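Researcher: Go.
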Amino acid sequence: MKKLKVGLIVDSKIVSKQVDHLFQMSLKSDLYDISCLIIQDTGQHKGRLSSKIIRYIVKNGINKFIRSVNFKIIFKIESFFIKRKKVIFKDFFDKFNLQSYNINSLKVKPKISQSGLVYRYSEEDLKKIDSLDLDLLIRGGSGILRGRILDICPKGIISFHHADNDVNRGGPPGFWEVFNKQKRTGFTIQILNEELDGGEVIFKGFIPTSFLFTLNHANLLTKSNVFLNKAIESLAEKNFNTKMYLKKPYAYPLYKTPNIIQQFQYIKNTILILSVRFYRKLMSRSYRWSVAYQFTDNWKDVNLSRSIRIKNPPNHFLADPFIWHKGDSHYCFVEDYDYKTKVGCITVYKITKDGHKRLGVALSEPFHLSYPFLLENEGELYMCPGTNQSQDIRLYKCIDFPLKWQLEKILIKDVSASDTTIFYSDGKWWMLTNLCSSELGDHNSELHIFSSGNLLSTSWEPHPKNPVIFDSLTARNGGILFDQESAYRVFQRHGWNLYGEAFGVSKIIDLTDSTYVEEVNNVEFTPLKASFEEFTKTPSSNGAIYSTSSSGLFSSDRRAHKVGDILSVTLSEKFTSNKAVTSASGKADAIGAEVGPTGLLRNFAGLGGSASKTNSFAGSASTNQSNSLTGILSATVVRVFPNGNLEIKGQKKLRITEGTEYIRLSGIIRPQDISATNTVSSAKIAEAQIEYVGAGILDSASKPGWGSALFRIISPF
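Model: Structure:
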């Protein structure tokens, strides 16, 4: 297959570690080749240092100069210590010369706007770039690119945005997430267009936010580089399958270099965190983890405040509990970490109604063990513990329950994996595991799936959409739960500068060889049911004919008014937008699509939806977009406000052979807007959130194929 011909836009041949690393990955790729450097002559590297400083002060003012210099000092000090503390970052902050790769280069001189932010290329430079016959450009230099350069290559210009472009626009990369104590730091890979951070998003990822700006910055750039490389290779293979990222209005400030007050506030917070850490390390060890248990008939009824804690042994902590029931007892397998050796083993506790007792060590290796996931197959009991230090995924077989185990099979070699979860469903074995795609050792952000027809196979097939989740808030595994109808993935949630802040549960909606859909199973869309006491409670009478506790003046009035009541919502949503721009172009293009339930499903559900988009160019450009959703959906009252307003939530799931479709609704309504027939119009719902999604064949059929999607990306029209 012909390699993708790629050009790299840089400001000079002296580049950052990130750009150099990307170039190294391209040399190993069989799918694309960085054949040319496009060097932007911005004039920033010319002249003596004193001349550069004077030009900067004249253009930006003394205050901005002081702010910029002070921030660079912070960066230099932090990077000095990080290079010595983190081996993987020992050369991250150094500069590298691309001259050593003997690559062709082309110098261009962009026209820079008065603000110094927007770059436009001259027609002469554009002709030079056009003559290179490149398939794709990568923006590795400065400037917001505008004009014909955006369309000069068939596949456009691919670029980083080192943040979640829905929340953090501007810079510096990785700083404001730390300053604002955001739980996660994101990156965005997109195809550039004329709108700032408004191009087509082809990938998003989220990593845990570190407490230190420079460390967060280095983690972010290192992690995102790997996925930029994957995105380019997918484009080269012409099988690029982007996830659907809804475009949202940007409602946050456009971040810039922090002012002096903000910088000193950051320094103060950093010193405080480091002082606390040093004090804890100096005075005593803090046992962050412990294990507790509770007896219940249904895992959904667990109340953690009533659990019984297993005391940590001296100089140890317990974590990652897994329960196995045998006879009249429960056996709890846990990670048992020794502070002295800094290695964990697997220990077993016997749990009964009368209490718990330590039985001993079940599994020990020269390397660290954790997450003792248990599973059964053909009458045999197996354990798949966390063994990322050994760079593989292992399966141990129980020889004598519960304390004797032996290595049965190494399922996957040469991987850095944590918290591997294995279960059987729909005729095959599924493996959900947390891999690290970079050298960072971050096992909190990526969820990968593998499958096999045989548990003991050494050829597990990776899922085509790996990582199926790239988000430190939900990716890390915590176990698997089942009921009669569904499977639920337990996940660990990480907070700002905090590993293991909480856990949550996601319902696995759809899992096939080509799809993975899960839904976080929390209060957001979990119906709240009134207790039996609330339903049977008789309100006291004050002698009046009308009472606020009743639904209406007459007893025949059955409108919803309390928690647990059900009402019908009439969906009648329609939005239309029009945009027109004068243009001298004589090109024409039109793309149309209809989405929503079709055929049997449309008739069965009583729901319909459509979306269409038309673009035309004939001396002027215009865009018309319309969306509609109609039907009836039942919802439950989940909250009654003091003023009488009602919070409602509802969802409808339809599953037939062709796939699964479901619609969700939530919002706030006034009691007076509920009709006598116990219905309310969706137009009367405040803070309305209406979501229509699907999985399976129907969902796939409603979306354009990869050929159409690729055409939209590469089309210059």
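Model: The CA atoms of residues 54 and 62 lie 10 Å apart.
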